[in-house]
Amino acid sequence: MDPNQMKALDQCHPDILRDVDIDKQFLLRMYIDNIITQAQSEDIEQETTRRAKASKLLEVLPRRGPSCFRQFVNKLRQDYHWIAKKLDTEYEKAKREIPKDINTKLLDVYNNQLCRLVHGVYDQSSVLPLETHPEYLVNQISDSVRILHIRCYRALGISLRDHDPVITCLSLSQLIDRKVHSLQNNLNELKWSLYEEKKKKNKSNIIVLDQKYEKEITKMKKTLEKQKEAYKKLEHSMKVKTKQMQSLSKESTVLQTQNQQLKERVQELESTLVYQRQTSQGTMITEWKM
Protein backbone atom coordinates (compact mmCIF):
# COMPACT_ATOMS: atom_id res chain seq x y z
CA MET A 1 0.00 0.00 0.00
CA ASP A 2 1.03 3.56 -0.52
CA PRO A 3 1.39 5.93 2.48
CA ASN A 4 -1.99 7.57 1.85
CA GLN A 5 -3.81 4.21 1.93
CA MET A 6 -2.00 3.19 5.12
CA LYS A 7 -2.90 6.53 6.69
CA ALA A 8 -6.58 6.00 5.80
CA LEU A 9 -6.48 2.55 7.42
CA ASP A 10 -4.91 4.05 10.55
CA GLN A 11 -7.64 6.69 10.76
CA CYS A 12 -10.36 4.03 10.45
CA HIS A 13 -8.58 1.48 12.68
CA PRO A 14 -10.89 2.02 15.73
CA ASP A 15 -14.02 1.81 13.54
CA ILE A 16 -12.93 -1.48 11.97
CA LEU A 17 -12.07 -2.98 15.37
CA ARG A 18 -15.40 -1.88 16.77
CA ASP A 19 -17.79 -2.72 13.92
CA VAL A 20 -16.36 -5.30 11.50
CA ASP A 21 -17.07 -8.96 12.23
CA ILE A 22 -14.23 -11.03 10.76
CA ASP A 23 -15.98 -14.39 10.40
CA LYS A 24 -15.19 -17.38 8.20
CA GLN A 25 -17.44 -16.19 5.38
CA PHE A 26 -15.75 -12.76 5.32
CA LEU A 27 -12.27 -14.35 5.28
CA LEU A 28 -13.34 -16.73 2.53
CA ARG A 29 -14.47 -13.83 0.33
CA MET A 30 -11.17 -12.07 1.04
CA TYR A 31 -9.25 -15.23 0.05
CA ILE A 32 -11.30 -15.82 -3.13
CA ASP A 33 -10.61 -12.25 -4.31
CA ASN A 34 -6.89 -12.77 -3.53
CA ILE A 35 -6.87 -10.01 -0.97
CA ILE A 36 -5.20 -12.36 1.53
CA THR A 37 -3.58 -15.78 1.22
CA GLN A 38 -4.89 -19.00 2.74
CA ALA A 39 -2.13 -19.02 5.31
CA GLN A 40 -2.96 -15.45 6.33
CA SER A 41 -6.65 -16.38 6.53
CA GLU A 42 -5.84 -19.32 8.83
CA ASP A 43 -3.63 -17.10 11.04
CA ILE A 44 -6.44 -14.58 11.41
CA GLU A 45 -9.01 -17.27 12.16
CA GLN A 46 -6.87 -18.63 14.99
CA GLU A 47 -7.39 -15.38 16.92
CA THR A 48 -9.96 -15.85 19.69
CA THR A 49 -11.74 -12.47 19.72
CA ARG A 50 -13.38 -10.39 17.02
CA ARG A 51 -11.18 -7.36 17.76
CA ALA A 52 -8.04 -9.52 17.65
CA LYS A 53 -9.06 -10.91 14.26
CA ALA A 54 -9.71 -7.42 12.91
CA SER A 55 -6.37 -6.22 14.31
CA LYS A 56 -4.56 -9.17 12.71
CA LEU A 57 -6.22 -8.40 9.36
CA LEU A 58 -5.12 -4.77 9.57
CA GLU A 59 -1.54 -5.99 10.13
CA VAL A 60 -1.68 -8.17 7.01
CA LEU A 61 -3.36 -5.79 4.56
CA PRO A 62 -0.48 -3.20 4.21
CA ARG A 63 1.80 -5.98 2.89
CA ARG A 64 -0.61 -7.06 0.12
CA GLY A 65 0.12 -4.32 -2.42
CA PRO A 66 -1.60 -1.09 -3.58
CA SER A 67 -4.62 -2.84 -5.19
CA CYS A 68 -5.48 -4.52 -1.89
CA PHE A 69 -6.82 -1.29 -0.37
CA ARG A 70 -9.45 -0.70 -3.02
CA GLN A 71 -10.56 -4.36 -2.97
CA PHE A 72 -10.88 -4.29 0.82
CA VAL A 73 -12.96 -1.09 0.67
CA ASN A 74 -15.27 -2.68 -1.92
CA LYS A 75 -15.78 -5.73 0.35
CA LEU A 76 -16.64 -3.49 3.30
CA ARG A 77 -19.08 -1.51 1.16
CA GLN A 78 -21.43 -4.52 1.03
CA ASP A 79 -22.06 -4.78 4.79
CA TYR A 80 -20.16 -1.86 6.36
CA HIS A 81 -20.80 1.00 3.94
CA TRP A 82 -20.17 3.71 6.56
CA ILE A 83 -16.65 2.36 7.16
CA ALA A 84 -16.04 2.08 3.40
CA LYS A 85 -17.21 5.68 2.97
CA LYS A 86 -14.93 6.86 5.77
CA LEU A 87 -11.98 4.99 4.26
CA ASP A 88 -12.61 6.74 0.92
CA THR A 89 -12.89 10.10 2.65
CA GLU A 90 -9.71 9.63 4.69
CA TYR A 91 -7.83 8.42 1.62
CA GLU A 92 -8.82 11.51 -0.41
CA LYS A 93 -7.96 13.71 2.55
CA ALA A 94 -4.54 12.07 2.89
CA LYS A 95 -3.85 12.63 -0.79
CA ARG A 96 -4.60 16.34 -0.42
CA GLU A 97 -2.40 16.76 2.64
CA ILE A 98 1.24 17.73 2.19
CA PRO A 99 3.68 15.68 4.29
CA LYS A 100 5.62 17.63 6.89
CA ASP A 101 8.99 16.93 5.29
CA ILE A 102 7.69 18.19 1.92
CA ASN A 103 6.26 21.28 3.60
CA THR A 104 9.66 21.93 5.22
CA LYS A 105 11.42 21.57 1.87
CA LEU A 106 8.92 23.85 0.17
CA LEU A 107 9.36 26.40 2.94
CA ASP A 108 13.13 26.24 2.52
CA VAL A 109 12.79 26.73 -1.25
CA TYR A 110 10.47 29.70 -0.74
CA ASN A 111 12.52 31.46 1.96
CA ASN A 112 16.01 30.84 0.57
CA GLN A 113 15.38 30.95 -3.18
CA LEU A 114 12.01 32.19 -4.39
CA CYS A 115 11.61 34.92 -1.78
CA ARG A 116 15.08 36.31 -2.58
CA LEU A 117 14.32 36.43 -6.28
CA VAL A 118 11.05 38.27 -5.77
CA HIS A 119 11.68 40.49 -2.73
CA GLY A 120 15.47 40.67 -2.50
CA VAL A 121 18.03 39.31 -0.05
CA TYR A 122 17.56 41.99 2.60
CA ASP A 123 13.75 41.91 2.77
CA GLN A 124 13.11 39.71 5.82
CA SER A 125 9.46 40.72 6.14
CA SER A 126 8.45 38.22 3.44
CA VAL A 127 10.20 35.25 5.06
CA LEU A 128 7.70 32.69 6.39
CA PRO A 129 8.04 30.95 9.79
CA LEU A 130 8.39 27.18 10.20
CA GLU A 131 4.82 26.78 11.45
CA THR A 132 3.33 28.22 8.23
CA HIS A 133 0.24 26.33 7.11
CA PRO A 134 0.83 24.31 3.90
CA GLU A 135 -2.11 25.90 2.10
CA TYR A 136 -0.86 29.42 2.87
CA LEU A 137 2.66 28.40 1.78
CA VAL A 138 1.36 27.06 -1.54
CA ASN A 139 -0.57 30.32 -2.09
CA GLN A 140 2.57 32.37 -1.38
CA ILE A 141 4.61 30.23 -3.78
CA SER A 142 1.89 30.64 -6.41
CA ASP A 143 1.83 34.44 -5.94
CA SER A 144 5.65 34.64 -6.11
CA VAL A 145 5.76 32.56 -9.29
CA ARG A 146 3.07 34.80 -10.80
CA ILE A 147 5.10 37.92 -9.90
CA LEU A 148 8.21 36.37 -11.43
CA HIS A 149 6.21 35.50 -14.52
CA ILE A 150 5.06 39.12 -14.90
CA ARG A 151 8.57 40.51 -14.28
CA CYS A 152 10.17 38.10 -16.74
CA TYR A 153 7.66 39.03 -19.44
CA ARG A 154 8.23 42.72 -18.80
CA ALA A 155 12.02 42.27 -18.88
CA LEU A 156 11.69 40.45 -22.20
CA GLY A 157 9.40 43.15 -23.59
CA ILE A 158 6.40 40.82 -23.87
CA SER A 159 2.91 42.11 -23.13
CA LEU A 160 0.77 40.01 -20.81
CA ARG A 161 -2.15 40.75 -23.09
CA ASP A 162 -0.32 39.17 -26.00
CA HIS A 163 -2.07 35.89 -26.77
CA ASP A 164 0.30 34.88 -29.54
CA PRO A 165 0.34 31.04 -29.46
CA VAL A 166 4.03 31.04 -30.44
CA ILE A 167 4.91 33.02 -27.30
CA THR A 168 2.53 31.26 -24.89
CA CYS A 169 3.86 27.83 -25.92
CA LEU A 170 7.52 28.70 -25.32
CA SER A 171 9.37 28.13 -22.05
CA LEU A 172 11.20 30.95 -20.25
CA SER A 173 14.61 29.77 -21.50
CA GLN A 174 13.26 29.67 -25.07
CA LEU A 175 11.81 33.17 -24.67
CA ILE A 176 15.18 34.41 -23.37
CA ASP A 177 16.99 32.78 -26.30
CA ARG A 178 14.44 34.37 -28.64
CA LYS A 179 15.02 37.80 -27.06
CA VAL A 180 18.82 37.40 -27.17
CA HIS A 181 18.61 36.43 -30.85
CA SER A 182 16.43 39.47 -31.54
CA LEU A 183 18.88 41.76 -29.70
CA GLN A 184 21.78 40.26 -31.63
CA ASN A 185 19.97 40.95 -34.90
CA ASN A 186 19.28 44.53 -33.80
CA LEU A 187 22.92 44.93 -32.80
CA ASN A 188 24.12 43.58 -36.14
CA GLU A 189 21.77 45.95 -37.97
CA LEU A 190 23.05 48.84 -35.84
CA LYS A 191 26.66 47.86 -36.57
CA TRP A 192 25.90 47.70 -40.28
CA SER A 193 24.16 51.09 -40.13
CA LEU A 194 27.14 52.60 -38.31
CA TYR A 195 29.47 51.04 -40.86
CA GLU A 196 27.48 52.56 -43.73
CA GLU A 197 27.41 55.96 -42.00
CA LYS A 198 31.14 55.75 -41.36
CA LYS A 199 31.70 54.74 -44.96
CA LYS A 200 29.65 57.73 -46.18
CA LYS A 201 31.46 60.02 -43.78
CA ASN A 202 34.83 58.72 -44.90
CA LYS A 203 33.79 59.19 -48.51
CA SER A 204 32.69 62.77 -47.82
CA ASN A 205 35.91 63.36 -45.88
CA ILE A 206 37.88 62.00 -48.80
CA ILE A 207 36.04 64.36 -51.15
CA VAL A 208 36.72 67.30 -48.83
CA LEU A 209 40.36 66.25 -48.49
CA ASP A 210 40.63 65.84 -52.25
CA GLN A 211 39.26 69.33 -52.74
CA LYS A 212 41.59 70.68 -50.09
CA TYR A 213 44.60 68.88 -51.56
CA GLU A 214 43.59 69.99 -55.05
CA LYS A 215 43.59 73.60 -53.90
CA GLU A 216 46.94 73.15 -52.19
CA ILE A 217 48.35 71.43 -55.28
CA THR A 218 47.07 74.29 -57.49
CA LYS A 219 48.63 76.78 -55.09
CA MET A 220 51.88 74.84 -55.07
CA LYS A 221 51.83 74.69 -58.89
CA LYS A 222 51.42 78.47 -59.07
CA THR A 223 54.23 78.92 -56.56
CA LEU A 224 56.39 76.53 -58.56
CA GLU A 225 55.63 78.42 -61.78
CA LYS A 226 56.63 81.68 -60.09
CA GLN A 227 59.80 80.03 -58.82
CA LYS A 228 60.52 78.76 -62.34
CA GLU A 229 60.06 82.26 -63.76
CA ALA A 230 62.23 83.70 -61.02
CA TYR A 231 64.82 80.99 -61.74
CA LYS A 232 64.74 81.79 -65.46
CA LYS A 233 65.19 85.47 -64.69
CA LEU A 234 68.01 84.64 -62.30
CA GLU A 235 69.57 82.33 -64.89
CA HIS A 236 69.31 85.06 -67.53
CA SER A 237 70.75 87.60 -65.11
CA MET A 238 73.58 85.19 -64.32
CA LYS A 239 74.31 84.73 -68.00
CA VAL A 240 74.35 88.51 -68.51
CA LYS A 241 76.61 88.97 -65.51
CA THR A 242 78.80 86.14 -66.71
CA LYS A 243 79.15 87.86 -70.06
CA GLN A 244 79.83 91.13 -68.27
CA MET A 245 82.42 89.38 -66.13
CA GLN A 246 84.02 87.90 -69.21
CA SER A 247 84.00 91.32 -70.88
CA LEU A 248 85.45 92.92 -67.75
CA SER A 249 88.03 90.18 -67.59
CA LYS A 250 89.05 90.93 -71.19
CA GLU A 251 89.08 94.63 -70.46
CA SER A 252 91.16 93.95 -67.36
CA THR A 253 93.61 91.94 -69.42
CA VAL A 254 93.80 94.73 -71.97
CA LEU A 255 94.26 97.27 -69.22
CA GLN A 256 96.97 95.17 -67.61
CA THR A 257 98.71 94.92 -70.98
CA GLN A 258 98.39 98.64 -71.55
CA ASN A 259 99.54 99.28 -68.01
CA GLN A 260 102.60 97.12 -68.61
CA GLN A 261 103.28 98.94 -71.84
CA LEU A 262 102.91 102.28 -70.07
CA LYS A 263 105.32 101.12 -67.38
CA GLU A 264 107.79 100.09 -70.04
CA ARG A 265 107.28 103.38 -71.84
CA VAL A 266 107.76 105.29 -68.61
CA GLN A 267 110.99 103.40 -67.97
CA GLU A 268 112.18 104.18 -71.51
CA LEU A 269 111.29 107.80 -71.03
CA GLU A 270 113.06 107.88 -67.68
CA SER A 271 116.11 106.27 -69.21
CA THR A 272 116.07 108.73 -72.08
CA LEU A 273 115.62 111.63 -69.69
CA VAL A 274 118.52 110.46 -67.55
CA TYR A 275 120.64 110.06 -70.60
CA GLN A 276 119.67 113.47 -71.85
CA ARG A 277 120.43 115.02 -68.49
CA GLN A 278 123.79 113.40 -68.37
CA THR A 279 124.52 114.49 -71.90
CA SER A 280 123.37 118.03 -71.18
CA GLN A 281 125.51 118.28 -68.09
CA GLY A 282 128.55 117.03 -69.95
CA THR A 283 128.08 119.65 -72.64
CA MET A 284 127.73 122.43 -70.10
CA ILE A 285 130.87 121.38 -68.31
CA THR A 286 132.79 121.31 -71.54
CA GLU A 287 131.55 124.75 -72.51
CA TRP A 288 132.39 126.13 -69.10
CA LYS A 289 135.90 124.84 -69.32
CA MET A 290 136.32 126.35 -72.62
TrEMBL record:
Pfam families per the UniProt record, alphabetical: CARD
Residue ranges of every copy of the CARD domain listed in the record: 1-78
Keyword Coiled coil: yes
Keyword vocabulary terms for this entry: Coiled coil
Alphabetized Gene3D superfamilies for the sequence: Death Domain, Fas
SUPFAM superfamilies registered for this protein in UniProt: DEATH domain, Myosin rod fragments
Gene Ontology molecular function, alphabetical: death domain binding; protease binding
Coiled coil: 210-279
GO biological process, one term: regulation of apoptotic process
Protein name as annotated: CARD domain-containing protein
Organism lineage string: Eukaryota, Metazoa, Spiralia, Lophotrochozoa, Mollusca
